[in-house]
Amino acid sequence: MIDRKLTGEPPKTILPKGTIDTQMHMYVPGFPSVEGGPGLPPAPLPTPDMYRTAMEWLGVDRVVITQGNAHQKDNACLLACLAEMGELARGVAAIDGQTSEAEVERLDAAGIVGARIMDLPGGAVGLSELEAVDGICANAGWMTAVQFDGTALPELESRLAALQSRWVLDHHGKIFGGVTDEHIAVIKRLIDKGNVWFKFAGCYEATLTSGPDYPDIAKVAREIAAYAPERIVWGTNWPHNLAKKTEDYPDDAALLDTVMGWLPDEKAMQLALVYNPQSLYGFPDWG
């Protein structure tokens, strides 16, 4: 059991109307975990109702639900969550090169707007499928979320630069080996290609320092946000599945305030929270 904080002292940062959380997972009962994944998060199951409470607390209006590793390439739970959340939600599924055009069309009709590459332990679809998934996403008009150990960014630059879909470098690049000037230069060159976004989410997952400020992650986040504010998106990373005990569970309001401090100004915040994700994930204009 874990006690997830869903409400409390509100964040000091007032989020703009129409804010989109682009990185989170949710679950509904009746969908057991699939072999190969890490299992379901600790009880109680993080449900749509729980997330709605957190949305109200933080000031989030819309959401992108990402397929959790627990369900691998079985997107049924994700589709059930999208149905629960309605028009306020879009989804990012797990597919591979064998996924049929008919299945892509079925997912698209249910609110799926992208697919994820998760080349880390427990991930359903790794970099071996990168080009195949990218091709499917490009043909479908979807985006691709790409997550891997970003220490290897320089070695992977040519493959990433050749991607045809609109894609997101997830979780601040997740550079487990530590951010260097070379990593930042690679990210900038990829952004200059015109089809790349950079996601602020889960800063605690790759930091070599610690909270509450995460100075190593803050360094790359600040530099990329100043370089290309029109390419930043943000996510809560709720329900923080790496936290297995209550005492390890982050305060979402405090974390939000920290991360928003990495954006250069209010205009950049409006872009990162509303206009950039609205365009990337296919939401209508707010209001």
UniProtKB/TrEMBL annotation:
Pfam families (alphabetical): Amidohydro_2 (PF04909)
SUPFAM superfamilies referenced in this protein's UniProt entry, alphabetically: Metallo-dependent hydrolases
Membrane-crossing segments per the record: none
Protein keywords: Isomerase
Source organism of this protein record: Donghicola tyrosinivorans
Residue ranges occupied by any Amidohydrolase-related domain in the UniProt entry: 45-283
Gene3D superfamilies: Metal-dependent hydrolases
Keyword Isomerase: yes
Any GO MF annotation of the entry: hydrolase activity
Protein name: D-galactarolactone isomerase
